[in-house]
């Protein structure tokens, strides 16, 4: 499969460093019979050893040429291929098919050119996911795990941390791929978390957070003008002069819940 020409439109950079592959497999710790789905199997660097450990693997791949090559290499009993765009794929329906009454595990080297919208899409299925191990651009991973008050903390971190416990596991250099990307990469582990403070309206929370981070250099009062009054801030104990990166996930949830339907306006 080395003859496959990487395609820029699919953001293809294929993992080839055996040491990194072994580290990822150790982090995943796949066991026989588990319901695992790989996103973007590519040249099967992870696919083959995962099949050896699991017995059977599902994979979502958009590139028809790669699907054809994987179909020749693995039997349907080993690898169930879904030729689809992961951004549009219904992982909830697949979870219901693979693990009725249970959850699926996700792994993958996610295309860097669509990583943020893909993460938001996958978050919609958090209730059907046991855990996820993803290769991503290091800059994105840092934003995912950033703490309030840091320069990397923003909308992506708030919305994912509301749903997942996340941990950066290891750094991966460009030389681990073919062709080498122009950025450093990292592995992140995501585990759905129990809700400490539950959003009454998740869509309202998402809209509120997006509005709060519309202009990072401005305060909450300025970014949320016309939506949140000083009385609203006082009701939840939030200082309106704070910048959005200094507000915790729980405080965004409490503010959204206080606003109720107004948060979705």
What can you see in these coordinates?
This protein has 265 residues and is of the alpha/beta class. It has two domains: 8-192, Vaccinia Virus protein VP39 (Rossmann fold); 202-264, Helicase, Ruva Protein, domain 3 (Orthogonal Bundle), CATH 1.10.8.100. 36% of the residues lie in helices and 19% in strands. It contains eleven helices and nine strands. It has helices at residues 18-28, 47-54, 64-73, 91-98, 115-123, 138-145, 155-163, 202-212, 220-223, 230-235, 249-259, and strands at 14-15, 36-39, 57-61, 79-83, 104-109, 129-137, 164-172, 177-178, 185-192. Strands 4-3-2-5-6-9-7 form a seven-stranded mixed beta sheet.
Unreliable runs = 6-11
Can you identify the CATH superfamily of the largest domain? Vaccinia Virus protein VP39
N/C terminus separation: 50 Å
Count of individual domains: 2
Number of helices: 11
Rg from alpha-carbon coordinates:
20 Å
The outline comes out as elongated
H-E order: EHEHEHEHEHEHHEEEHHHH
The CATH class assignment of the largest domain is: Alpha Beta
* CATH architecture label name of the largest domain: 3-Layer(aba) Sandwich
Class per helix and strand makeup: alpha/beta
Q: Average pLDDT value? A: 93
Strand order across the largest sheet: 4-3-2-5-6-9-7
As a percent range, the share of strand residues is 15-25%
Could you say what the CATH topology of the largest domain is called?
A: Rossmann fold
Query: Sheet with the most strands?
Result: 7 strands, mixed
Measured as a percent range, the helix fraction is 25-40%
